Amino acid sequence: MSVIYILLSISIIIAVVFFIAFITAVRKGQFDDSYTPSVRMLFDDELVKKQPKPSIKIKKD
Q1: What are the transmembrane regions (predicted)?
Q2: 20 to 30 A Cα–Cα from 50, which one of 4, 13, 14, 38?
Q3: What domain range includes position 37?
Q4: 13 found inside a domain
Q5: Cα–Cα distances in Å, from 35 out to 5, 23, 30, 31, 39?
Protein backbone atom coordinates (compact mmCIF):
# COMPACT_ATOMS: atom_id res chain seq x y z
CA MET A 1 0.00 0.00 0.00
CA SER A 2 2.89 2.36 0.69
CA VAL A 3 4.12 1.86 -2.89
CA ILE A 4 0.88 3.33 -4.19
CA TYR A 5 1.39 6.45 -2.07
CA ILE A 6 4.96 6.81 -3.35
CA LEU A 7 3.94 6.39 -6.99
CA LEU A 8 1.01 8.74 -6.59
CA SER A 9 3.16 11.45 -5.04
CA ILE A 10 5.84 11.07 -7.73
CA SER A 11 3.24 11.28 -10.52
CA ILE A 12 1.69 14.40 -9.00
CA ILE A 13 5.12 16.02 -8.72
CA ILE A 14 5.89 15.20 -12.37
CA ALA A 15 2.50 16.56 -13.46
CA VAL A 16 3.11 19.81 -11.58
CA VAL A 17 6.57 20.17 -13.16
CA PHE A 18 5.14 19.69 -16.67
CA PHE A 19 2.33 22.16 -15.93
CA ILE A 20 4.83 24.77 -14.75
CA ALA A 21 6.93 24.19 -17.88
CA PHE A 22 3.84 24.65 -20.05
CA ILE A 23 2.82 27.88 -18.31
CA THR A 24 6.38 29.20 -18.65
CA ALA A 25 6.41 28.42 -22.38
CA VAL A 26 3.06 30.15 -22.88
CA ARG A 27 4.20 33.27 -21.04
CA LYS A 28 7.41 33.47 -23.06
CA GLY A 29 5.37 33.41 -26.28
CA GLN A 30 6.56 30.09 -27.63
CA PHE A 31 3.08 29.30 -28.97
CA ASP A 32 2.50 32.70 -30.59
CA ASP A 33 2.28 32.43 -34.35
CA SER A 34 2.73 35.77 -36.04
CA TYR A 35 3.68 34.47 -39.49
CA THR A 36 0.81 32.18 -40.49
CA PRO A 37 -2.09 34.68 -40.24
CA SER A 38 -0.31 37.08 -42.60
CA VAL A 39 0.11 34.50 -45.35
CA ARG A 40 -3.05 32.45 -44.82
CA MET A 41 -5.01 34.54 -47.30
CA LEU A 42 -2.45 33.74 -49.99
CA PHE A 43 -3.01 30.00 -49.74
CA ASP A 44 -6.81 29.84 -49.35
CA ASP A 45 -7.31 28.86 -53.00
CA GLU A 46 -5.16 25.76 -52.61
CA LEU A 47 -7.45 24.40 -49.92
CA VAL A 48 -10.49 24.35 -52.22
CA LYS A 49 -10.55 21.24 -54.37
CA LYS A 50 -12.05 21.39 -57.80
CA GLN A 51 -15.42 19.72 -58.23
CA PRO A 52 -15.29 16.77 -60.64
CA LYS A 53 -17.43 17.13 -63.73
CA PRO A 54 -20.52 14.95 -63.73
CA SER A 55 -20.09 11.89 -65.93
CA ILE A 56 -23.73 11.81 -67.03
CA LYS A 57 -24.43 14.13 -69.94
CA ILE A 58 -27.87 15.54 -70.49
CA LYS A 59 -28.98 15.81 -74.11
CA LYS A 60 -30.68 18.98 -75.14
CA ASP A 61 -33.15 18.87 -78.08
Answers
A1: 6-26
A2: 38
A3: 2-44
A4: yes
A5: 47, 22, 13, 12, 7
